Amino acid sequence: MEAPIGVPASKRVLRSQGRQTMQRLLDAAMVAFDRRGYHATRVSDVVDIAHMSHGTFYLYFANMTDLARALTIEAAADTSMLYDAMAEVSTALDGGSRERLRAWIGDYSKLWLRYAPLFRSWTDLAAADESMGERIRQTFTTLTDGIATRISAVGRPGDLSPEVAATAVVAMLDRFHYLRDFIGRPVDDEALETLTTMIHRAVFAPVD
Amino acid sequence: MEAPIGVPASKRVLRSQGRQTMQRLLDAAMVAFDRRGYHATRVSDVVDIAHMSHGTFYLYFANMTDLARALTIEAAADTSMLYDAMAEVSTALDGGSRERLRAWIGDYSKLWLRYAPLFRSWTDLAAADESMGERIRQTFTTLTDGIATRISAVGRPGDLSPEVAATAVVAMLDRFHYLRDFIGRPVDDEALETLTTMIHRAVFAPVD
Amino acid sequence: MEAPIGVPASKRVLRSQGRQTMQRLLDAAMVAFDRRGYHATRVSDVVDIAHMSHGTFYLYFANMTDLARALTIEAAADTSMLYDAMAEVSTALDGGSRERLRAWIGDYSKLWLRYAPLFRSWTDLAAADESMGERIRQTFTTLTDGIATRISAVGRPGDLSPEVAATAVVAMLDRFHYLRDFIGRPVDDEALETLTTMIHRAVFAPVD
Amino acid sequence: MEAPIGVPASKRVLRSQGRQTMQRLLDAAMVAFDRRGYHATRVSDVVDIAHMSHGTFYLYFANMTDLARALTIEAAADTSMLYDAMAEVSTALDGGSRERLRAWIGDYSKLWLRYAPLFRSWTDLAAADESMGERIRQTFTTLTDGIATRISAVGRPGDLSPEVAATAVVAMLDRFHYLRDFIGRPVDDEALETLTTMIHRAVFAPVD
DNA sequence: GATGAATGAGATTTCATTCAT
DNA sequence: TATGAATGAAATCTCATTCAT
Predict the structure, then answer these.
(1) Which nucleotides of chain F does any protein CB come within 7 A of?
(2) What is the DSSP letter of D162?
(3) Which residues of A touch B179 (CB under 8 A)?
C-alpha cells in the first residue's frame, strides 16, 4: 500500500525508517522553536536542522501548523498526567501535604522546561488552528478542574472561588516560568520553594 | 524646519490631520492585534481596518515593528504608573492594606484589559526589536522590583524570596487575565476578590 | 478605499491604469494559451508576455483558474449572442434561409477563431472549476436549445430528435474548427460552404 | 536475454506477473483519466488506484506520457479498424446503405465509449509527445480519408468538398459523444438513429 | 519484482515596501 | 497628505523521478 503524497503523517502507515524520520522532524522543530519561536520558524529552518530536503517535510506534515499539532497532542497528553498526580497532593492536609505540593510543582516545572519552546507559543497556537485550540483549552480546563476540586476539598468556605483560584494557580505557574526565562533568571530550587509556599498559603493552608 | 519624507512619523512634525491619521492607524492596529494576534497581523489588515491605502501606512510608520513600538511606549508608561501606586499599597500593613491591595489589583486589571491585544503578545514583541525588548523587560523589572520591596517591607524572613515572589505575583496577574479570556470566563468582581485574597495570604498577610 | 491584496479583480475597484493592466493580463493569457495550451500555461508565462512581475498577477487574479474564469465569462456572453442570431436563421424556410444559415455559420466561425485558445480547453476547464463548468454547460445548452427550436419549427416529424440533432450540429461546428487546426488545414470559404450545405441538408432542407 | 532495469516496459521481457501488473496500471490510468482528465492526472493518482507504490510505476513506464502512448497505440489500432469497416458502408448505395451506415456508427459509438477517458484528451495528447502526435493525426487522417473516398464515390459533384465533409462527419461523431456526456444525456438508440439520418442526408443521400 | 523513502527542481503564492501621480 | 499600482524577495508547496532495501 502506497503512502499518499502531501498527506500528514497521521494518515500514513510508517515503517521504522519513516517513524525515525518523523521523529527527527519533530525534534528539529523543537530546536527551531526554541531558537526563533514558533511564529518565526520556517519550514527551511526545520529541515536544515534535521538535514533533510524540503520535500521530505511535506511527506510527513501538511505544513508547520500540522507539525505543531502533533507536538501539541504529545504535550497535552503529558500535561494531563499532572491532573492525575494532583489527586494525591492533598488527600491528606496534614503535615505531609506541603511536601506533596512541592513535588507536584517540581513535576510541573520539569514538564514546562521540557516543552518550553512549545509552551511559549501555546496559547498563540490556539488561535492558529481550531482543533489545536480546543485541545489546549481542554488541557487547561482539565488541570484547573483538578486543582479546583482539591481546593474545594480543603474547604475554606466563602472567601475563595475554587474555580477562580485554580485558574490563578495555573496562570502563576505557567507564566512564572516564562517570565523567569524572559528576565534571564533561573527556575531553581529556591524559586520552586517560594512558589510552593505561596500556593500553599494562598489556597491550601488553614487560616487562623 | 522641513519634515523628512519616507521616514517614520516619530521623526516628523505632524499637523492636526496627520496626528489624527496616525491615531487611526494605532487604533486599527489594536483591533487587528485583537482579532488575529500580533504575529498574524499584516500591514494590509491594519490599513483595511483603518480604511486607508498601504502607502499611507508607510507615511507614518517604517513598518509594523515601528508601530508596535509606539504602542509599547504608551503601554509601558501607563504600566509604570502602577509601580508608583504600589508604593501606597503596603505603607501600612494595618487593617487598611487589603483594601489598598484590592484597589491596586483593580487598577492593574483595568490596564490589562485596555491593552489586552498588546499584552497578549507583549513578551513576544521583545524578540522583534531590541529597543522594544529592553523597554518591556524594564517595565516588568520595575514592577517586580516595586512589589519585591513591599514584600521585603512586610518582613517574613527566610521563607520567601521577595524577588521570586514578586515575579510570581506579576506572572499570576498577567496570565490570569489571558487565561480567563482564553477559556471564556470573565474577570469580574468575584475573580478580583479571590485574586486579592490569594496574593494577600501568599505574601502580605502575617503568618501565625 | 484600499484594494485588498490577493483578491480577484472582480472584487476590487479599479481605476483606468488598473483596468488596463488587467486587460494586458487577459490578452497575455490568450497568447500563452495559444502557444502552449491552458494546462501547460504557467503564471510566469503570462507575466513574461505581459512584461510584469509575478506579484502583479496576484493583484488581479487569485490564480490561473480565476483568470480563465474571467475569459470564460466573456466568451460565454459572446457565444450566447449567437443564440439570439439563430432566431433569424429559419424564420422563413424559403429560398433565403440557406443564406441566413451560411451567415450564421460564418459568425460562429469568427467567434470560434477569436476565442480558439480558450475553446480548445473549453470543456477541460469545466472540470477544473465548478462555477466555470456550470457556465460552459449553460452556454452549450442555450445554443442547442435555440437550434432545437428552429429544427422543430421546420417540422420533419418523427425522423429526427430536435434536441439530439441540435447537439450534433453544435458538436460538428465546434470540433470541426478544432480538427482543421489539428490536421493543419484552413477553415476557409469552401469549408464553410460545405458545412452549410451539410447542416442544411441534414436538418433544414425539405425531404423529397 | 537480460531485461534492462529502469527502462520502460516496452523494452523489457515480461513474465506473466509482470504483464498483469502492467495491465493493472493501464486500467488504473483509464480510471484516473476518467475521474480527473489526462492533464490533471498525477502518477500518484494512478498508483493509488492500482494499489501500488510509485517505484513500481517506473518499473513499467518511463513517465505518464509513456503510459499514455501505450494506451494511444491500442486505441489507434482499434480505431483504424473502423477505416476498413467504412469500406463496406457504401460499396452499394442502394437501399441497404443506410443500415450499413447505422451499423458503422454504432461501432464507432462503442469504440468511443470504451476509450472515452482517452478520447476526451485525445488531441491534447498530441502536444505532449511527437510520436504520439503523429499517430493520432494519422488515425484521424486515415479515418477522414476513408470517409472522403466514400463521399467521392457517391458523387454529388461540386457542392461538397469530400475532404471537408469527411472531417465534419468525424468531428460531429467525436464531439457529439463528448457533449452528450458533458450535458448529462445518453447516447442511446434514438441518438444514434438521428445521427445516422443526419449524416446520410448530409453526405450520402441522393439529392432531388 | 516490489516497496517505502527521499530528493530537488520548479511552480505557486504572500506580503513588506517603494513609487509615480 | 494620500493613493492605487507595482515590485521582487522569500516562503510555501507539488510532484516526477531516483534509490536502497
Answers:
(1) 1-20
(2) H
(3) 140, 167, 170-171
Distance from CA of A1 to the nearest CA of D (A): 6
Mean per-residue pLDDT for D143-170?
Answer: 87
Q: What is the CATH number of domain B68-204?
A: 1.10.357.10
Please answer whether residues D62 and D107 qualify as being in contact, where contact means their C-beta atoms are separated by less than 8 angstroms: no
Residues from chain B contacting residue A40 (CB–CB below 8 Å) = 127
Per-residue pLDDT of chain C (208 residues; tens, 9 = 90+): 333 444 544 456 778 889 999 999 999 999 999 999 999 999 999 999 999 999 999 999 999 999 999 999 999 999 988 887 776 665 544 455 788 899 999 999 999 999 999 999 888 888 888 999 999 999 999 999 999 988 888 766 568 899 999 999 999 999 999 999 999 999 999 999 999 999 999 998 776 5
B203: which chain A residues are within 8 Å (Cβ-Cβ)? 198
CA distance A6 to chain D (A): 11
CB spacing of B53 vs C2 below 8 angstroms = yes
Sign of the four-CA dihedral A31, A37, A38, A40 = negative
3-state secondary structure of D112: helix
Question: Scanning every residue of chain D, which has its alpha carbon at the shortest distance from the alpha carbon of A3?
Answer: D53
Q: Which nucleotide is nearest to B6 (CA to C1')?
A: E18
- What are the extents of the domains in chain B? 9-60, 68-204
**Looking at beta carbons, which residues of chain D come within 8 Å of A4?**
44, 48
Would you call A199 exposed, middle or buried from its count of C-beta atoms within 10 A (0-12, 13-18, 19+)? buried
Read off the pLDDT of residues B4-63 as tens digits, 9 standing for 90 and up: 434 554 556 777 888 899 999 999 999 999 999 999 999 999 999 999 999 999 999 999
Can you read off the three cell numbers belonging to residue C186? Answer: 484552413
At the topology level, CATH places domain A64-204 in Tetracycline Repressor; domain 2 (1.10.357)
Q: Residue at minimal CA–C1' distance from E18?
A: B55
3-class SS at B193?
A: helix
Calculate the CA A153 to chain-centre distance.
26
Average pLDDT along chain A: 87
Q: Evaluate whether the domain defined by A9-60 bears CATH number 1.10.10.60.
A: yes
Domain C66-204, classified CATH 3.90.1580.10, yes or no: no
Closest nucleotide to C18 by C1' from CA: F5
A–C contact (≥3 CB pairs within 8 Å)?
no
Q: Which residue is nearest to nucleotide F13 (CA to C1')?
A: A58
Burial (0-12, 13-18, 19+ Cβ within 10 Å), D66:
middle
Domain D69-204 homologous superfamily, CATH:
Tetracycline Repressor, domain 2 (1.10.357.10)
Integer Cα distance of C182 and D140 in angstroms: 10
Residue A1 is placed in which grid cell? 500500500
Residues listed for chain B = 208
Out of C128, C140, C195, the one facing D168 most closely (by C-beta) is C195
Nearest to D9 by CA among D52, D76, D65, D62: D62
> What DSSP designation does D206 have?
P
Residue with cell 520502460: D8
CA separation for the pair B53, B43 (Å, rounded)? 10
Burial class (CB in 10 A: 0-12, 13-18, 19+), B86: buried
Neighbours of chain C (3+ CB pairs under 8 A): B, D
